[in-house]
Design goal:
elongated, single chain, three-stranded antiparallel β-sheet, mainly alpha, 3 strands
Length: 189
């Protein structure tokens, strides 16, 4: 019976870990690039999601071939919200993907945890943008077009975005950090 040298096992294990780490790093970097390059398509997707979400209430909505959600209000009134480059979550998610890819340049971080953290942050940011669109629509409905848009877009919508960017950052750090701490605690015992 032949014996396997224990010196070759860690190298083989490290190689698989490096392949996995660089695969996740590449996927995150590619995601960031895709979000920037295809942001027009992403904005359209956000408009379609908003239309589907808000059509379930008392408001009729529709989206054409562009990035505009049209809200049909009671009393034969309507207003449209365009998901512009300044208002898309694509440009909030892309930096998280880039940061996640950069985190994986460090060997000690768990690629699965980084991927999970960035993915959850992306979902939170997409949901935050949907909430923002809904708040704008609600305030326009209740306060009128000019005042409702001003309050919804500039104040409340911006606050929602800022808070959820911070929450998303904390989520990434907590998920990535919890796996990192566990490794140190195990090594210290």
């Amino acid at each position: 019976m032949s014996t396997v040298s224990t010196a070759t096992l860690p190298a083989a294990g490290r190689s698989r870990e490096d392949i996995w780490r660089f695969a996740v790093l590449g996927a995150l970097a590619a995601s960031a690039v895709a979000l920037i390059v295809f942001q027009k398509s992403f904005r359209h997707m956000e408009a379609v999601i908003a239309s589907n979400v808000f059509a379930s209430g008392n408001v009729s909505t529709f989206v054409g071939s562009d990035d505009v959600v049209v809200f049909l209000l009671p009393g034969s009134r309507a207003f449209a919200l365009e998901v512009t480059p300044e208002c898309t979550s694509a440009f909030l998610i892309a930096p998280f993907a880039i940061i996640g890819a950069g985190m994986l340049l460090r060997r000690r971080l768990n690629p699965a945890r980084v991927l999970l953290g960035v993915s959850l942050a992306a979902v939170l940011l997409l949901l935050a943008n949907q909430l923002r669109l809904g708040v704008i629509a609600g305030l326009v409905t209740s306060l009128g077009l000019e005042r409702g848009y001003e309050w919804g877009h500039l104040f409340v919508g911006s606050l929602i975005s800022v808070v959820l960017v911070a929450v998303s950052g904390l989520v990434v750090l907590m998920i990535v950090g919890s796996g990192h701490r566990g490794r140190h605690e195990a090594a210290a015992s």
